[in-house]
C-alpha cells in the first residue's frame, strides 16, 4: 500500500513543475499558490515519516534515480523528515516489539477485542487466528479467560442446543488445539491399552452391522454382540478415567457447562460431550495411529469397526438414540439406553471445577510459544517476497506442502530465527493434519549453508504434536553441494530415533526431473519460482559420454547441458546420498553461466581429454574427461559471450533498514549528490547533510547550517572530502553502513563523479578495523563483511582501469596502513586472480593494484604467501607441480611478485633469500609464460641489486655479467651457465646418467645464486644471514612429502651446506633418504634419491669428526653403491668418496687402523648389514675388507661414464690404506700387494689415468713401467695365492665389455700368471676358457688375438689346466669359502641380479638402524 501511494505522488513531479519549483527554491520568492511539486514533496515527507519501517527500505533507491529532478525531490523529502524530528529509533526490533507489547496489552486486558476478531474471522483464517490468540493469552497465563470468552460467544450465537460446539469456528478450533496440547498423556493412558488389544485381535473380530455388507443374519447378530462388548470396554475405560483427567480439562468442561447452562440448561452435559468426545476421544478412536496410540495403520475392516465404536460413544455423549438416518444401528439403542447413565455420570464428574489449576504448558510447547511471540513482530517480509519459505499448496494426494527455496535464503538479509519462525508460522496452521516439506535445491551453491545448530534448534522449538505431522520431505534437483548438508542432517538425525528428520519418521522423495515432479504435484498449484521451472527448457547443447572425476566417489558418468543462462551437470545414474540410509538420487548441479569458468587441472591424469570447471569464485571445482572436451568448452565460452550479466535473474531483495543504518545510508546519499552538476541537487544535498548531522547530534552539526539561499560551488571536492574525513574520524559507528551504501549507489555515479566519490569514501576504510573487528567474539563474521566490501572495491578497480591513479593516491593508502585490512584485501585480490587466471586481461589490472600499493609490507606478504603456497603443495602432493591444486595460486602470486620486484632494492635486500628459494623451486616448471615469470623475477631482483646496493666495481661487474648471461636464454633457464662460470663440486647431479636436466639445472642455478649471495651482500655478516635464511627455507620444503619439488629442495640444500652440518639436520636427511629408497623401489623414479644422496655427499665436507653418524655413513654409502643401477653409480660412488674424505680428516682412520674402526661402526648395523652381504654374495670382515670394497666398485670400471669416478674412489682407498704407522716414515713404500692397486692397474686405460690414480700415493710417475707392462708393479712372488685369486677374479669381471687394449693387457697378464702362479689360474680355468672362446670367435684386434693364442697354448700345455677347463666347481667353492660367492652375480656392469624388494627393504632397515 505504501509503495502504491508513494509512487503515485512521486509521479506528480514532472519536469516542468520541477523547473518551476526550482526557480522558487532558488530565488526564495513567494507564490500565492503552492506548486504541485511542493505539495507532492510535503505529502511524500509525511508519508515516509509515518511509515519509516516499510518506507525507507522501499524508497532508498530513489536517491540514485536517473532523473535528477526526482532525485532532488527525494533528497528534499529526506531532509524534511529529519527536520521534522522523525524518530528513527522506532525502526529497531526493540522499539517495534515495545509497540506490539502495547498492542498485546490492549488485546489481553479486554477479551472483547479477541472475541470480536473470532466473530468475524473467515473460515480460511480460523487456524492461524486460533494459534495466534492461544499463544498470546497462554504466554500471559490468560488461556482460560480467552476460552471462556470465545465459548460464551459461541453459545450466544448458537440457535439450537443440537448445534452447540459443532460448527467450525474459532471456539471449536481452539478447543481441539487446546485438547491436543494438554491431553496427549491422558489420552494414551486411557485408550492406548484397549486399542492395542483390539488391534491384536482384529483378525478374529467383525463389527459390521450394515446388512448390505454382511452375508447372513447370524453373522449380523454375532457382529452386534462383538461390537457391544468392545464398545463397552471403551466406555468403561473412559468413564473410569474421570479421576485422572487433567485439571485443565476439568476447567474447560466447567467453563462449557456454566456457559451453556444460562441459555440451554438441559444441554450442559451434551455440550461438554461435544468437547470431550467429539473433539478429543472420538477422533483418536477413529485414527489411533495419528495420535500415536498404535504404530501400525488399522486395516480397512478395523477402521470401519473403530468408526462404529466412535458413533456409539458420540451418541451416548449427545444423549440420543440411533434414528432413521442409520437404521441398521437400531439394534444398539437398547445398549445406548443401558450405558447412557455411565456416560452422563462421567460428564457430570469432569464438569466440576477443579480446586486448583496449573497454568504451566508442556516444556516443548512453552519454548514454541515464547519463540513465536518473541519473533512475531520481526520483519519477515524479505523471506516472503524472496519466496524463500512459503505455503506451497497441496500435492496430488492432498498433502499440504511448505516450500523452501534454498537459493533464495540470503544470510545478509535474514537470520535463521526468522527462517524458523516463517516455517513454524505456516506449519502451525497445519497442526491437526499431516503436511510435507518441499526443498528446492536448484542452483544451490552452499554459500549460506545452515549449520547443525539450526536443525537442532528447529527440533527443540517444534512441539511434538506438530513434529509428528511432518510426514514427507521432497528434495528437488539434488546437487553435490546440498548433498553435503543433507548428509549432515541424516547423520545427526540417525543418533536420535525421535528426530523429525529420522528416515523412520518421515518419507524422503528425491525428485530429479520435471516429469517426476509432475507425478507428485500440479505445477500450477505448488507455486515454484519461474527460475526453477525455466531451467528445464534452457538447453541448447547436450553432451553425453562424459566422466566426472571425484576424489571421494571415483569416476561418475554425467551429461552436460549448456543453455542460454545455465550449465547443467547431471549424473546418468542415481548416486548414493549416504551409506546405510538407502537414499539414492540423480544429481543435477546447475550453475548460472556468469558464475562458471574453466579451471586448471589439479587431479593428476595423462588423459588429454581431461578438463576442469569451477563456479562460485572457485569455491566449487569439478573435473571431467570427455572426447568432446573442446566442443564442451567452446559451447560454454560461446554461451558466456552471449550471456549478459544484466539478464541474470536477480534475487528479489529488499534492503533491511535498522535505526543504526540510517545515518550512514543518508550520509552517503548526501555526499554522493553533493558533487552533482545540478545546483538544486547540490543545495538539497547540503541541507540534507546539515539536517542529518543535527538530527543525530554529530559533532559536525555546528559546522553546517540548513538554508535555502546558499550557493554550493560546481566543484566542492575539497569540502566534500574534508567533511567526509572529519565524520569518519568522529562518527566511526557509521562506517559499515556508509561503505555498503556507497557501493549500492556506485553504478548511478557519472564517470566524472566517480574519482571524487572514491576520494571521499577512502577516509572511512580505516574505520573498518575499529567498527567491525573491535571484539573477537564475531571476528570471522566481521572479516567476511570486510571481505565483501573489498570484493566490491576490487570490482570497481577492475571494471574501470581509468580510476587506477585516484585509487593509488587515495584508496590503497587507507587500506595498507592497517596490516589486518591489508591481509584481507590481499586475500580477495588473490581470490579474484584465481577466478580469472594469469592469462586474462584483468589479471594485469589486479597486478597493477598490488603494484600500486607497493609497500614493503605487501611485498613481504606476497612473497610469504607464495612461499607458503609452495609448501602447501605437499598437503595433496602430485608428481608434477602444475598438476597440484595450488599451482594456480602460485602463478597468480608469482605474477604479483614479479611486478613488485621491479626497481625495488629494499625488496631485494630484505627478501633475497626468499626470492632465491622461490626461483630455485620454480625454475623450468610449467608453461613458457610461467618460466618467463620466474626468469623475470630473478632478473628484476639482480637488477635491483645492481642499481640499489653500494658495491665495489669488481663485484658490480660480476653481478652485471651474471645478469647479462641470465638474459641470454629464457626458455631453459640457467641450464649450464652456473657450471661454466663457477664450476661444480666433486659431487654433482650432472654426472648422473639417469637424472633429468631439471635437477641438473637447479643445481647449477643454486650454485650460481649461492655465489651471488657473497657478491651482492654489503658485508660478510649479511651474506651469512642470507644463506642461513635460505637454508632454513629449503629445509622447511625438503622435509615435506612432495615429489614435485622435494628433489629440488635437497639439490639446493646440498649446494647451501657450506657451514658445519649438525647431526639433527643429518638425521632428517637420512629419514627422507629412507623414504626415497622405498619410493624408488615402487616407481623407479630416482630423482628424489639422487638429490638426497648428492646433498649428503656435499654435506660430508662439513660434517664434524665428532658426529655419531660418521663411520656408519660409510656402510650406508657402500649399501647404496651395491643397490642402485649402473646409471646411478656415480651418485653413490661420489657419496662414498666424500665419506672417505671426511673419515680421512682424522689421522686415526688411516692405514691399518681404518678397517677396525669401520667394522666397529658396523656392529650396531649387523642386523641389516649381514643380510645385505648375504644377498649380494660379497662379505665384509677384517680379513677381506679391502677385497670386498674393490668388488663393490669393480662394476663402475667398465662404463666410460663411471670409470673415472670409480678410479678416483679406488685411489682414495689406496691413499688411506698406504699410510704407515711410523711417524718418521709418513707413507708406506710398498703398495704393490693392495687390491686397490691391483684393480687400478687392471683397468686404467691410459698413462695419464695411471698417473692421476697413483700420484698422491707417493709413486713417482717417472718410475712407472709402460702401460703394457703395468702389472709388473705387483710382486706376485710375495702375494698370497688367495689374494691373488681374488684380484684376478675381479679383473675378469665384465671382461667382454672392456676395450681391446685392456683385454690384450689382461690376457697377457693371465698368461704370465699361469706360468708363475699356476695354482691361481687352475681355479680360473673355466671362466678363462669362456673368455678365450669369445675372443677367438668375435675379436678383430690382432694383438688381442695373439695374446689369446699365447694364453691358450699355455693352458693347453699343462694337463692340470686341461682337466678343469669345463668345470667351475673349484672356483665357486673357493669364492664361497672366501665370502665372494656373488662376485660375478652382483658386481658386474650388467648386474644380472634383479634388485627385488628384499634388498631395498634391507637398505631401509640399515638406515633405520643408523638413525635410532
List the total number of helices: 62
Poorly predicted runs: 15-22, 24-33, 380-385, 644-656, 976-985, 1223-1229
Main beta sheet: 7 strands, antiparallel
Helix content: 55-70%
Q: Tell me the strand percentage band.
A: 5-15%
- The quaternary structure here is single chain
The total count of strands amounts to 14
**How are the strands of the biggest sheet laid out side by side?**
11-8-7-6-14-13-12
Please state the overall shape, judged from the principal axes of the Cα atoms: elongated
Mean pLDDT: 82
Taking all Cα atoms into account, the compactness measure Rg is 47 Å
Keywords: GTPase activation, Phosphoprotein
Protein name: 5'-3' exoribonuclease 2
Domain Ras-GAP: 125-318
InterPro entries: ARM-type_fold, CRAL-TRIO_dom, CRAL-TRIO_dom_sf, PH-like_dom_sf, PH_NF1, Ras_GTPase, RasGAP_CS, RasGAP_dom
Report what the structure shows.
The chain is mostly helical and 1412 residues long. It folds into 4 domains: 106-350, GTPase Activation - p120GAP, domain 1 (Orthogonal Bundle), CATH 1.10.506.10; 362-640, CRAL-TRIO lipid binding domain (Phosphatidylinositol Transfer Protein Sec14p), CATH 3.40.525; 854-1059, no CATH class; 1060-1386, no CATH class. Helix content is 59%, strand content 6%. A 7-stranded antiparallel β-sheet has the order 11-8-7-6-14-13-12, with helices on one face. The longest helix is centred in the first third of the chain and has 31 residues, at 170-200. Residues 15-22, 24-33, 380-385, 644-656, 976-985 and 1223-1229 have low confidence and may be disordered.
Amino acid at each position: 500500500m505504501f509503495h502504491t501511494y508513494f509512487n503515485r505522488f512521486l509521479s506528480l513531479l514532472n519536469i516542468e513543475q520541477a523547473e518551476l519549483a526550482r526557480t522558487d527554491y532558488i530565488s526564495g520568492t513567494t507564490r500565492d499558490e503552492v506548486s504541485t511539486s511542493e505539495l507532492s514533496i510535503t505529502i511524500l515527507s509525511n508519508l515516509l515519516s509515518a511509515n519509516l519501517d516499510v518506507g525507507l527500505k522501499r524508497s532508498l533507491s530513489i536517491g540514485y534515480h536517473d532523473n535528477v529532478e526526482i532525485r532532488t525531490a527525494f533528497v528534499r523529502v529526506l531532509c524534511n523528515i529529519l527536520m521534522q524530528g522523525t524518530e528513527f529509533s522506532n525502526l529497531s526490533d526493540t522499539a517495534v516489539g515495545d509497540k506490539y507489547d502495547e498492542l498485546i496489552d490492549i488485546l489481553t486486558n479486554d477479551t472483547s477485542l479477541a472475541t470480536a476478531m473470532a466473530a468475524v474471522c473467515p473460515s480460511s483464517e480460523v487456524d492461524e487466528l486460533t494459534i495466534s490468540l492461544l499463544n498470546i493469552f497462554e504466554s500471559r497465563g490468560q488461556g482460560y479467560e480467552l476460552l471462556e470468552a470465545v465459548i460464551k460467544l459461541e453459545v450466544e450465537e448458537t440457535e439450537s442446543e443440537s448445534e452447540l460446539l459443532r460448527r467450525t469456528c474459532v471456539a471449536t478450533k481452539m478447543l481441539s488445539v487446546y485438547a491436543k496440547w494438554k491431553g496427549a498423556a491422558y489420552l494414551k493412558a486411557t485408550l492406548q491399552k484397549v486399542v492395542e488389544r483390539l488391534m491384536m485381535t482384529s483378525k478374529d473380530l467383525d463389527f459390521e452391522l450394515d446388512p448390505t455388507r454382511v452375508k447372513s443374519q447370524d453373522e449380523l447378530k454375532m457382529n452386534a454382540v462383538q461390537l457391544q462388548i468392545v464398545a463397552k470396554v471403551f466406555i468403561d475405560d473412559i468413564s473410569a478415567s474421570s479421576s485422572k483427567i487433567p485439571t485443565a480439562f476439568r476447567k474447560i468442561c466447567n467453563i462449557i457447562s456454566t456457559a451453556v447452562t444460562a441459555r440451554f440448561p438441559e444441554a450442559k452435559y451434551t455440550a461438554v460431550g461435544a468437547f470431550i468426545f467429539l473433539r478429543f476421544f472420538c477422533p483418536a478412536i477413529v485414527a489411533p495411529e495419528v495420535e500415536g496410540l498404535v504404530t501400525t495403520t488399522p486395516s480397512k475392516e478395523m477402521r470401519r469397526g473403530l468408526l462404529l465404536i466412535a458413533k456409539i460413544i458420540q451418541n451416548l455423549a449427545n444423549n440420543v438414540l440411533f434414528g432413521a438416518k442409520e437404521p441398521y444401528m437400531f439394534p444398539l439403542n437398547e445398549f445406548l439406553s443401558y450405558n447412557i447413565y455411565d456416560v452422563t455420570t462421567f460428564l457430570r464428574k469432569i464438569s466440576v471445577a477443579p480446586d486448583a489449576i496449573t497454568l504451566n504448558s508442556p516444556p516443548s510447547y512453552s519454548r514454541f510459544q515464547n519463540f513465536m511471540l518473541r519473533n512475531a513482530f520481526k520483519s519477515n517480509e524479505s523471506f516472503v517476497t524472496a519466496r524463500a519459505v512459503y505455503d506451497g499448496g497441496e500435492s496430488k494426494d492432498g498433502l499440504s506442502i511448505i516450500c523452501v527455496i534454498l537459493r533464495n535464503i540470503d544470510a545478509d538479509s535474514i537470520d535463521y530465527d526468522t527462517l524458523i519462525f516463517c516455517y513454524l508460522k505456516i506449519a502451525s496452521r497445519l497442526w491437526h493434519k499431516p503436511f510435507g516439506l518441499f526443498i528446492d535445491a536448484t542452483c544451490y551453491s552452499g554459500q549460506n549453508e545452515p549449520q547443525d545448530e539450526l536443525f537442532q534448534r528447529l527440533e527443540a522449538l517444534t512441539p511434538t504434536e506438530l513434529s509428528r505431522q511432518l510426514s514427507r520431505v521432497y528434495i528437488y534437483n539434488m546437487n553435490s553441494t546440498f548433498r553435503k548438508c543433507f548428509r549432515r542432517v541424516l547423520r545427526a538425525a540417525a543418533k536420535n530415533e525421535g528426530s523429525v528428520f529420522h528416515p523412520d519418521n518421515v518419507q524422503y522423495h528425491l525428485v530429479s526431473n520435471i516429469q517426476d515432479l509432475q507425478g507428485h504435484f500440479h505445477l500450477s498449484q505448488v507455486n515454484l519460482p519461474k527460475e526453477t521451472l525455466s531451467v528445464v527448457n534452457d538447453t541448447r547443447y547436450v553432451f553425453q559420454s562424459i566422466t566426472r572425476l571425484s576424489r571421494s566417489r571415483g569416476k561418475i558418468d554425467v551429461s552436460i547441458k549448456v543453455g542460454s543462462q545455465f550449465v547443467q551437470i547431471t549424473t546418468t545414474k542415481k548416486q548414493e546420498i549416504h551409506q546405510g540410509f538407502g537414499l539414492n538420487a540423480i544429481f543435477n548441479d546447475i550453475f548460472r553461466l556468469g558464475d562458471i569458468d574453466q579451471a586448471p587441472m589439479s587431479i593428476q591424469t595423462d588423459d588429454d581429454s581431461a578438463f576442469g570447471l569451477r563456479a562460485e569464485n572457485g569455491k566449487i571445482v569439478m573435473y571431467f574427461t570427455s572426447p568432446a572436451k573442446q566442443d564442451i568448452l567452446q559451447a560454454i565460452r560461446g554461451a558466456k559471450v552471449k550471456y549478459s550479466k544484466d539478464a541474470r535473474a536477480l534475487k528479489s531483495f529488499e534492503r533491511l533498514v535498522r535505526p543504526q543504518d540510517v545515518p550512514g545510508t543518508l550520509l552517503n546519499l548526501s555526499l554522493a549528490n553533493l558533487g552533482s552538476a545540478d545546483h538544486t541537487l547540490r543545495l538539497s544535498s547540503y541541507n540534507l547533510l546539515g539536517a542529518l548531522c543535527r538530527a543525530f547530534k554529530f559533532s559536525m552539526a555546528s559546522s553546517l547550517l540548513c538554508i535555502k539561499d546558499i550557493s554550493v560551488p560546481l566543484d566542492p571536492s575539497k569540502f566534500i572530502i574534508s567533511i567526509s574525513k572529519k565524520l569518519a574520524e568522529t562518527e566511526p559507528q557509521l562506517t559499515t553502513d556508509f561503505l555498503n551504501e556507497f557501493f549500492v549507489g556506485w553504478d548511478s555515479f557519472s564517470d566524472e563523479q566517480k574519482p571524487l566519490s572514491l576520494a571521499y569514501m577512502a577516509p572511512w576504510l580505516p574505520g573498518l578495523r575499529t567498527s567491525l573487528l573491535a571484539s573477537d567474539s564475531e571476528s570471522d563474521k566481521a572479516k567476511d563483511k570486510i571481505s565483501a566490501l573489498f570484493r566490491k572495491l576490487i570490482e570497481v578497480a577492475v571494471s574501470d582501469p581509468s580510476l587506477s591513479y585516484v585509487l593509488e593516491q587515495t584508496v590503497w593508502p587507507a587500506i595498507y596502513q592497517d596490516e589486518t585490512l591489508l591481509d584481507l584485501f590481499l586475500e580477495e585480490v588473490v581470490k579474484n586472480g584465481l577466478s580469472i587466471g594469469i592469462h586474462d586481461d584483468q589479471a594485469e589490472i589486479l597486478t597493477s593494484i598490488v603494484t600500486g600499493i607497493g609497500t614493503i609490507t605487501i611485498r613481504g606478504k606476497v612473497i610469504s604467501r607464495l612461499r607458503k603456497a609452495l609448501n602447501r603443495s605437499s598437503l595433496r602432493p602430485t608428481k608434477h607441480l602444475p598438476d597440484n591444486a595450488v599451482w594456480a595460486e602460485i602463478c597468480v602470486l608469482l605474477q604479483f611478485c614479479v611486478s613488485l620486484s621491479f626497481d625495488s632494492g629494499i625488496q631485494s635486500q630484505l627478501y633475497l633469500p626468499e626470492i632465491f628459494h622461490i626461483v630455485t623451486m620454480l625454475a623450468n616448471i610449467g608453461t613458457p609464460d610461467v618460466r618467463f615469470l620466474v626468469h623475470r623475477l630473478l632478473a628484476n631482483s639482480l637488477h635491483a641489486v645492481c642499481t640499489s646496493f653500494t658495491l665495489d666495481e669488481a663485484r658490480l661487474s660480476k653481478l652485471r655479467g651474471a645478469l647479462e648471461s641470465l638474459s641470454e636464454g629464457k626458455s631453459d633457464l640457467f641450464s649450464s651457465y652456473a657450471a661454466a662460470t663457477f664450476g661444480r663440486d666433486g659431487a654433482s647431479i650432472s654426472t648422473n646418467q639417469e637424472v633429468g636436466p631439471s635437477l641438473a639445472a637447479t643445481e647449477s642455478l643454486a650454485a650460481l645464486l649461492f655465489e651471488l649471495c657473497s657478491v651482492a651482500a654489503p658485508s660478510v655478516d649479511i651474506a651469512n644471514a642470507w644463506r642461513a635464511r635460505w637454508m632454513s627455507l629449503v629445509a622447511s620444503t625438503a622435509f615435506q612429502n612432495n615429489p614435485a619439488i622435494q628433489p629440488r629442495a635437497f639439490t639446493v640444500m646440498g649446494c647451501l651446506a657450506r657451514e658445519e652440518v649438525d647431526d639433527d639436520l643429518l638425521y632428517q636427511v637420512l629419514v627422507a633418504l629412507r623414504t626415497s629408497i622405498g619410493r624408488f623401489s615402487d616407481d623407479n623414479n630416482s630423482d628424489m634419491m639422487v638429490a638426497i644422496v648428492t646433498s649428503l655427499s656435499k654435506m660430508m665436507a662439513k660434517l664434524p669428526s665428532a658426529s655419531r653418524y660418521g663411520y656408519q655413513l660409510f656402510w650406508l654409502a657402500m649399501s647404496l653403491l651395491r643397490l642402485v643401477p649402473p646409471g646411478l653409480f656415480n651418485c653413490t660412488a661420489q657419496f662414498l668418496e666424500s665419506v672417505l674424505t671426511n673419515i680421512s680428516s682424522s689421522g686415526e682412520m688411516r692405514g691399518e687402523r681404518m678397517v677396525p674402526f669401520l667394522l666397529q661402526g658396523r656392529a650396531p648395523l649387523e642386523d641389516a648389514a649381514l643380510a645385505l652381504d648375504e644377498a649380494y654374495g660379497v662379505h665384509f670382515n677384517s680379513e677381506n675388507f679391502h677385497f670386498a670394497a674393490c668388488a663393490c666398485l669393480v662394476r663402475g670400471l667398465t662404463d666410460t661414464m663411471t670409470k673415472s669416478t670409480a678410479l678416483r674412489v679406488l685411489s682414495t682407498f689406496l691413499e688411506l690404506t698406504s699410510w704407515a704407522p711410523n711417524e718418521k716414515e709418513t707413507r708406506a713404500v710398498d703398495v704393490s700387494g693392495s687390491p686397490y692397486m691391483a684393480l687400478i692397474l687392471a683397468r686404467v686405460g691410459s698413462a695419464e689415468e695411471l698417473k692421476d690414480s697413483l700420484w698422491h700415493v707417493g709413486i713417482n710417475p717417472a718410475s712407472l713401467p709402460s702401460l703394457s707392462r703395468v702389472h709388473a708393479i705387483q710382486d706376485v712372488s710375495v702375494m698370497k695365492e688367495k689374494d691373488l685369486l681374488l684380484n684376478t677374479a675381479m679383473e675378469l669381471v665384465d671382461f667382454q665389455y672392456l676395450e681391446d687394449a685392456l683385454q690384450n693387457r689382461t690376457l697377457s697378464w693371465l698368461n704370465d700368471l699361469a706360468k708363475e702362479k699356476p695354482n691361481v689360474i687352475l681355479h680360473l680355468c673355466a671362466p678363462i676358457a669362456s673368455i678365450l672362446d669369445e675372443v677367438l670367435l668375435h675379436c678383430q684386434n690382432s694383438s688381442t688375438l695373439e695374446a689369446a693364442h699365447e694364453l691358450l697354448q699355455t693352458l693347453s700345455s699343462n694337463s692340470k689346466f686341461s682337466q678343469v677347463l669345463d668345470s667351475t666347481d673349484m672356483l665357486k667353492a673357493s669364492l664361497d669359502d672366501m665370502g665372494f660367492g656373488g662376485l660375478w652375480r652382483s658386481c658386474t656392469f650388467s648386474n644380472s641380479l634383479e634388485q627385488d624388494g628384499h634388498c631395498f627393504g634391507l637398505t631401509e632397515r640399515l638406515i633405520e638402524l643408523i638413525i635410532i
